[in-house]
Automatic annotation (TrEMBL):
Keywords assigned: Ribonucleoprotein, Ribosomal protein, Transcription, Transcription antitermination, Transcription regulation, Transcription termination
Organism in which the protein naturally occurs: Blattabacterium sp. (Deropeltis paulinoi)
Top-level taxon: Bacteria
Residues annotated as domain NusG-like N-terminal: 5-115
Name under which the protein is recorded: Transcription termination/antitermination protein NusG
Family the entry assigns: Belongs to the NusG family.
Keyword Ribosomal protein listed: yes
Gene Ontology biological process terms in this record: DNA-templated transcription elongation; DNA-templated transcription termination; regulation of DNA-templated transcription elongation; transcription antitermination
Pfam families membership: KOW, NusG
GO cellular component term of the entry, any: cytosol
Length: 180
């Protein structure tokens, strides 16, 4: 029976319970011997760095809230066991009550590649050009400035700071400034 063809499907879940659903499904596999029907269960997560009160906070964020990807063969009792897991709404399908649609090969490759790519740190940029901000680190600590350019790849800002009544250009890291 190990010649069953598994395909990737998307499970709709209650948002915020993706990791619980994953662990419940993994318990079902272990407890009921569904190893031949169910392969991998994935919740794509991205690591995000946020700035709070001048400090970097690392946190993990679910990339597709309300969805879990699962490699499964839709035969036998495994499908019913998955659908009865707490937090699972249904398989993603065409229309209401339709049969589950497997993911295309390109989508699977992109998703699996994307999961590796997402584990690299992303940084949400909370700043906008023209915004006035306060310098909180370095020799210009306490000065206010206006953002003139944002260099995302370098994670730096170009500011114009008023020193002795003259605009002085500065280049600072995202971590050296905060919103007013």
């Amino acid at each position: 029976m190990s010649d069953l063809e598994r395909k990737w499907y998307v499970l709709k879940t209650i948002s915020g319970q993706e990791n619980k659903v994953k662990s419940y499904i993994e318990n079902e596999i272990r407890d009921n011997g569904f190893q031949e029907y169910i392969g991998k269960v994935l919740v794509p997560i991205e690591k995000v760095i946020q700035m709070r009160k001048g400090k970097k906070i690392h946190r993990e964020k679910v990339h597709y809230p309300g969805y879990v990807m699962i490699e499964v063969s839709l035969e036998g009792e495994a499908v019913h066991a998955i659908k009865n897991v707490p937090g699972v709404i249904n398989f993603l399908s065409e229309g209401k009550g339709g049969s589950a649609i497997p993911m295309r090969k390109e989508e699977v490759n992109k998703m699996l590649g994307k999961i590796d790519q997402l584990s690299e740190e992303n940084f949400s940029i909370p700043f906008v050009v023209g915004e006035t901000i306060k310098v909180i680190d370095g020799p210009f600590n306490g000065f206010n400035g206006t953002i003139e350019k944002i260099h995302e790849e370098k994670r730096k800002l170009e500011l114009a700071v008023l020193i002795f009544g003259r605009k002085t250009p500065l280049e600072l890291n995202f971590t050296q400034v905060e919103k007013i």
